[in-house]
Specification:
This protein is an alpha+beta fold. It has 19 helices and 23 strands. The strands form five sheets. Strands 11, 12, 13, 15, 16, 17, 18, 20, 21 and 22 form a ten-stranded mixed β-sheet that branches. Strands 1, 2, 3, 4, 5, 6 and 7 form a seven-stranded mixed β-sheet that branches. β8 and β9 (340-342) form a beta hairpin.
Length: 803
């Protein structure tokens, strides 16, 4: 062929869009018509990209999921901070009937119309339930009808008349009900209110999120999504060696180097587009499966799981674009000539400077935020939040970029010593350390990010965990029983004592008394104190007494009065009468004289964590029937040998009041925001971990497929299968160990910066470090075990056949 007939070398400057499109389309045709090998590579790429796309689509659906969930919650909300609604013909009286069953929260509302008009009905039901009727959610109906809900059925003395629709539920697994009671039954409800419409009027008035929690969300999103993006980039390079040999044939028939690169990019583009379709199908399938799953009390309808339109467009454009870009970058380091691909020669040593530059830039972005992230982060969307996210991304990507250099620097020092499996593994790593590094890059980022997140998580958890002052060793449950008089309080305590699973009960009946001498002109200025009636065992839990017998009275001075200024004294007289508005009423002359034998004592913190003052009388000294408006508090001790003792107590509580639940005492409590963020991060971490495992299985199978003929040659020459199996394990273990070491260093660096940003002291969560490292190693070990069966199938002499 003469020089005039040879195709001219394409200039590097500019190539027309039409030429790009034609070459990319040719690559796509090769991916389809290139035979079994091309289809195998395309399918592997599509599956790998599809896994990442499915998780990205799920992540992009999170804003819509929570928005629709919150909108339904706002639509059924009956609370607002405006003026109180006065009862009328079209209003509804409500009370909270929520309860708990075996650690599962059940939302409930009891209601009764105030008149004969048309009161507003909550979303999801057709009519207001009459007294003795209730609407239930599908999940609650299923629970009540099951054997598991046998004990729960005793708690609902209502007839089920229907199932709440989706518009009235936060999710398909929510346990909730609406029950109708009479107006008279509201006398036994602790608190109630009236509404004239449903729906919250206080949207957009949420408090700014705590800076530490905001940082937790930002870093959590970075940690969860980076492994996905890295895996998509890795999947676009599947089958590189076989593809490059095909490209050499194109060079032989006249294609220049730039055209072959565009054709290769077209193959990857087709695989990524097919991956988009596969990922969309996976997403639709997962959406249907996830819609009925309850994870830490959170569930969503399938209609909620819809990707945000802008984010979906970004995914649809970024995935194919990244596949093309990754392919072009990968081919720049390979010489594709007409007679072959120069890949097996000693590769050019990787540069270190730009790999170090990435984490240094990340640290440079994070350092200015040290100690000042909380300033100005309440409004959301500010530059500090973006700066923190960019710094975390650069630092974690820098850790990933360092991994190939570290693996190459270490494996090139391995000599020819050791067992045969070790030599096979190290030689393979020396020839293609980049492939092995890419296989574990996702787990490296995940472990590094998870470690930093764990350090920040431990700090934020300590910050959002408060000491309640409660002592669950002295009592496990507390019930505030709504009573109208002292006799009802006495009967309530007797019912609790007879309940199965109750070992002991500390019953306190209390009311207020007022001074009879001061403040006669204005009843609101009358000094008041509490009068508590309880037996001696109970009094020993609330005041410090050395001896007690029925008939004794004890006095505890209030800190609001100076020495000797209080009106509660031995021999003093107090007023027991109050009007309907809670003001002292001396006109009824209901007085009581404190016995002269009353003893002054010091208060003691009760199991609830509070200290009481005032008058403490035993039943022999004061009859609770004389209290006009008492409050009954039952502190209950359970028998640990009785299963479901808590549920029996809750059933007894509902028999006393249709809208009463008991509270379990706990020594600590956490903020609702932190609890919600923790649940969301755990859900995301679970999904990411599953993706990492699935992606590494796909990557390992692709590598084995690439080496199918080599494995067959080794077996044909008499190499034992166990030798090759151990070589695969060592080949996986070396980059994994190096990757985990690098991820620990990067995770600790990022964790230290995050703690400095929120002003928390340096604390390494060694337990979390060990856990995350163990999980990372466990995923790799599992992937290796899963890959052994296909490895053994490929190690057959039949693999030498060719066409």
């Amino acid at each position: 062929m003469s020089g005039q007939d040879a195709p001219a070398e394409e200039p590097r400057a500019r190539v027309s869009i039409a030429r790009w499109a034609a070459d990319l389309a040719m690559g796509g045709r090769f991916a389809v018509t290139g035979g079994r090998e091309s289809w195998a590579r395309t399918i592997m790429t599509a599956v790998g990209v599809g896994l990442g796309v499915a998780l990205l689509l799920l992540a992009s659906s999170v804003p819509t999921m929570y928005q629709q969930r919150n909108e339904r919650g706002d639509a059924r909300s009956a609370l607002s901070f405006g003026d109180k609604v006065k009862p009328g013909p079209d209003t509804l009286r409500l009370g909270n009937g929520g309860t708990t069953y075996r650690d599962r929260d059940i939302n409930g509302t009891v209601m009764a119309p105030d008149g004969k008009g048309t009161p507003p009905r909550p979303p999801g039901i057709d009519r207001i339930p009459a007294a003795g009727e209730m609407w239930v959610s599908p999940a609650l109906k299923e629970l009540l009808d099951s054997d598991e809900g046998k004990l729960l059925r005793d708690r609902f003395p209502y007839r089920t008349i229907g199932v709440i629709g989706d518009s009235g539920l936060s999710g398909p697994t929510e346990l909730t009900y609406y029950a109708g009671i009479s107006q008279k039954a509201f006398d036994h409800v602790n608190s109630s209110y009236h509404i004239d419409h449903w729906g919250s009027e206080d949207k957009g008035k949420d408090e700014p999120l705590d800076p530490a929690l905001l940082l937790l969300i930002i870093v959590g999103c970075v940690v969860l999504l980076l492994p996905v993006l890295i895996f998509i980039a890795t999947a676009a390079r599947f089958g590189g060696e076989r593809r490059d040999r095909r490209l050499a044939a194109l060079r032989l028939v006249g294609a220049d180097i730039h055209m072959t690169r565009r054709i290769a990019a077209g193959e990857s583009l087709f695989g990524s587009l097919l991956g988009l379709a596969v990922g969309t199908g996976m997403f639709l399938l997962v959406r249907e499966l996830v819609s009925g799953v309850d994870v830490w009390g959170i569930s969503f309808f399938a209609s909620d799981i819809v990707p945000s339109a802008p984010l979906a467009l970004v995914i649809a454009a970024a995935v194919p674009a990244s596949a093309v870009m990754v392919t072009l970058i990968a081919l720049r380091g390979i010489a594709i000539e007409p007679l072959g691909v120069v890949r097996n020669a000693k590769p050019k040593r990787r540069r270190l400077w730009w790999r170090l530059l990435l984490p240094l830039l990340g640290l440079a972005l994070l350092l200015p935020l040290a100690g000042g992230f909380g300033a100005g982060t309440g409004g959301g969307g500010n530059m500090k939040a973006y700066q923190a996210a960019a710094g975390a991304v650069l630092l974690l990507i820098g850790v990933t970029a360092l991994l190939p250099w570290v693996v190459e620097a270490v494996v090139e020092r391995f000599g020819g010593r050791g067992s045969v499996p070790w030599q096979l593994a190290t030689r393979r790593l020396q020839l293609s350390s980049g492939t092995a590094s890419r296989a574990v890059s996702g787990i490296t980022v995940a472990v590094a990010g998870a470690l930093a997140l764990q350090m920040l998580f431990a700090s934020v958890e300590a910050q959002n965990t408060k000491d309640t002052g409660q002592d669950p060793h002295r009592a496990q449950l507390i019930a505030n029983v709504p009573v109208s008089n002292g006799d009802q309080a006495r009967d309530a305590f007797a019912r609790y004592r007879e309940t199965k699973g109750v070992r002991d009960l500390l019953g306190v009946t209390e009311d207020y008394v007022s001074d009879v001498h001061r403040g006669k002109d204005d009843p609101s200025t009358y000094p008041e104190e509490s009068l508590t009636v309880a037996d001696c065992p109970t009094l020993r839990e609330v005041v410090r007494v050395t001896s007690c017998k029925n008939g004794d009275v004890f006095l505890v001075d209030s800190p609001y009065y100076g020495e000797g200024e209080g009106f509660v004294k031995p021999g003093g007289r107090v007023n027991l009468s109050f009007d309907d508005e809670g003001q002292p009423d001396l006109s009824k002359k209901k007085l009581w004289t404190i016995p002269h034998s009353a003893t002054k004592v010091k208060p003691r913190q009760d199991p609830i964590g509070s200290e009481r003052t005032g008058i403490f009388a035993t039943p022999g000294a004061f009859d609770v029937a004389d209290l006009p408006g008492p409050r009954a508090v039952a502190m209950i001790r359970l028998d640990p040998k009785v299963p479901d003792a808590v549920e029996y107590v809750r059933n007894s509580s509902v028999a006393l009041s249709p809208a009463m639940d008991v509270m379990q005492l706990s020594s600590t409590s956490q903020s609702d925001e932190f609890t919600a963020i923790r649940k969301a991060l755990f859900i995301g971490a679970t999904a990411t971990l599953l993706l990492i495992g699935a992606s590494m299985i796909v990557t390992t199978l692709e590598q084995l497929r690439e080496r199918k003929r080599l494995l067959s040659v080794l077996v044909a020459f008499g190499t034992r299968r166990t030798t090759l199996s151990w070589s695969v394990l060592w080949q996986t273990a070396v980059p994994v160990v190096l990757g985990l070491a690098l991820s620990i260093a990067g995770g600790l660096a990022l964790g230290v910066m995050l703690l400095k940003m929120v002003g928390q002291p340096l604390a390494v969560d060694w337990t979390g470090l060990g856990t995350m490292t163990g999980i990372g190693g466990g995923v790799i070990l599992l992937v290796t075990l899963v890959s052994l069966p296909p490895l053994w199938r490929m190690m057959r002499p039949e693999g030498l056949r060719t066409e």
